[in-house]
Design goal:
25 helices, 7-stranded mixed β-barrel, 6-stranded mixed sheet, binds alpha-methylisocitric acid, alpha/beta, 30 strands, binds iron/sulfur cluster
Amino acid sequence: MVFDLEMIKKVYAQFPDRVAKARQVVGRPLTLTEKILYAHLWQGDATQAYERGKSYVDFAPDRVAMQDATAQMALLQFMQAGRNKVAVPSTVHCDHLIVAKDDSKTDLARAVNESSEVYDFLASVSNKYGIGFWKPGAGIIHQVVLENYAFPGGMMIGTDSHTVNAGGLGMIAIGVGGADACDVMSGLAWELKMPKLIGIKLTGKLNGWTAPKDVILKVAGILTVKGGTGAVVEYFGEGATSMSCTGKGTICNMGAEIGATTSTFGYDESMSRYLKSTGRAEVAALADGISEHLTADPEVYANPEQYFDQVIEINLSELEPHLNGPFTPDLATPISKMKEEAAKNGWPTKVEVGLIGSCTNSSYEDISRAVSLARQVAEKGLKTKAEFTITPGSEQVRYTIERDGFLSTFDQIGAKVFANACGPCIGMWDRMGAEKQEKNTIVHSFNRNFAKRADGNPNTYAFVASPELVTALAIAGDLTFNPLTDTLTNEKGEQVKLDPPSGNELPPKGFAVEDAGYQAPAVDGSAVQVKVDPASKRLQLLDPFPAWEGTDLKGLKLLIKAKGKCTTDHISMAGPWLKFRGHLDNISNNLLIGAVNFFNEKTDSVKNQLTGAYGPVPATQRAYKAAGIGSIVVGDENYGEGSSREHAAMEPRHLGVRAVLVKSFARIHETNLKKQGMLALTFADKNDYEKILEDDTIDINGLTSFTPGQPLELVLHHADGSKDTILANHSYNEQQIEWFKAGAALNIIRQQFVG
Ligand code: MIC
Ligand code: SF4
């Protein structure tokens, strides 16, 4: 079945014309990214060229996707917007709330039981407002989107940072907070600063042990977790076209880890093959009809330096398998250097667990290549040294790999197959012994490896690698094993070498599935009731945030000055807290509990300026709130990196924090703060971070004349009576200043629709 074919036809019908108009106004050949963006202008045809990295532009995305952990807040907001139905095709995917522990059946049944209230809420809201619903067990949002909804040249947004995965099918797919999704579902434009463009030319061809994952691991090493901020990454070259569509998906997926707005590839044969094998031959035929528009103009790839802001070239023939980590996805080590690096840094080299799958790497190709290694365990008389787990990305993939005998091969090496869900990737892993907090190493094919992310243990050293390499390292049980050169001792005491992985891009017998897990919404949902129990611990209807009081903000207390990396996992942890994603007050009890306090180097211990005592961040903030005192959070570089979760912005807002002042922001988090009526500020002079002291009381001046491009003034009143005055920059435009004044963007939509 092809979903929303009429919508795709409509997009394609106007695509060539819109691209031609854009080329005219821009006055030069266009990159693929520009074609897709200009073809999706809210206003229709392009009438002006937008300045990259400067102009705010209104877009009209074709669709919206939401996963359960973020959909709750997105839909609670949408319910306040006063609409009967979503304005664009939208879907909800139940994938984040399933704890991986025993096996897929037991784990799924437990989740359905424990989270029935949330699942029922999401199902009924979906049913009411015309949203497609994918049940728990159906798969992970990005894999299900790639298999069913993504289409070359399309534009979508999703309430998850890895929405960018759909770039593998030539889309511009962008991760956003729920408030942005709410806008688009309400029929409003979606605003984005015209991105900068990074071109990555792939020459040569992947071979042997190297996989698409290694391309992005390498790119992460080059660009770091900040390097893609504000940019779209466009891949091209013979290395790109020779790669599978799902491999491209992996590369785009992890573009989130370099902070890129999204990544994409031009339409090619691999995409056409993937569309056909996933039952969308009609979409492939339509894309073939306009294929020249679904890639950049030839001049662009011939002379990329003239068209991209930055160009990187990677020769796939020479690329080595990489292992990235620990604790950050951009610490890239080629496998041949691992022995040295591990020894130098004291990383534990015994691999305890190898985990493959997730939204990033669970294609048929990935699994078939990993299984080619698992097979060698028996063939070569080896024994797998580490534990091994698989989390398939979708029921369709799981069903197909079971049919093709892969799961039974994995079973022979003692593997556990978890439910088709996020599981260990997001801390939903009931790992035995994790509470002992022992220092240990795991390797996985997921995308993120921030401290505590997989199992809650701060001493778990997690390394990211391709599924092939993860499998090899799990067999060897050794982080420093280089399968290209090293041998393993088998049960008979012989030295054996693993053959390089091999597999099939797509299932030779085609994909199959019995129940994919989709539930279509009611045609007319007006009679559907959505119930939220006022006594619920997991769901809470939202109260509008109060409007700005109309004055400068005086006497704010410093809540915390966060030191170093402060990702959304530090601001609003996932894992056990995922269960409160629909209950703003309850989830606010995790506010910033993972952030390191600059003044005592501890987590979740800050000074309450009213009592002088140290206590947890949420409790301290609640004390300020109770006393009617606002506060401010100070942070370092790339603050809010990682996830799209808007809870990281709504929690401080709910508890009375007024401003977040940092050296720099990650894109989605900055927008989320603005949307929720917070002040998102950056130090005009980064050295001023040093001037913030533990007992500071802070005034924010200039709000009564809050203007785009004009810095605000902050007065720091120190405990010894002295003061410092510093400047804070912001990136608010006129519209965003209105959000701040109204108390939140949603307050404006509500007024428009409800009256
Ligand atoms: C993640 O990978 O961190 C998540 C969980 O998928 C998040 C979304 C969330 O916090 O719910 C993301 O990447 O946006
Ligand atoms: Fe789920 Fe992990 Fe993918 Fe996020 S990155 S969507 S948690 S599998």
